[in-house]
Amino acid sequence: MKKLPKAILIDQDPLMKKEISKELSLTKHSFCIWHISFKFSCWFNAILQDKYAKWRSGFYELYKLEAREEF
Prior knowledge:
Layout: E1 7-10, H1 14-23, E2 28-31, H2 33-38, H3 40-48, H4 52-64
Parallel strand pairs: 1-2
């Protein structure tokens, strides 16, 4: 690899996180929002129950904001 990436998006695989930290120590790694949001229902549905749909909608409204001032 001629030039190391500044950032990399990964799924939530703990082994992948460990190896990236080791091999690409100067590269910032973040979890992919698709993988995170895909698991929302199993993480929050049981806790929030009938409030889950409203919570999810609010999350995506915040996620779509482009500026800090909008937040």
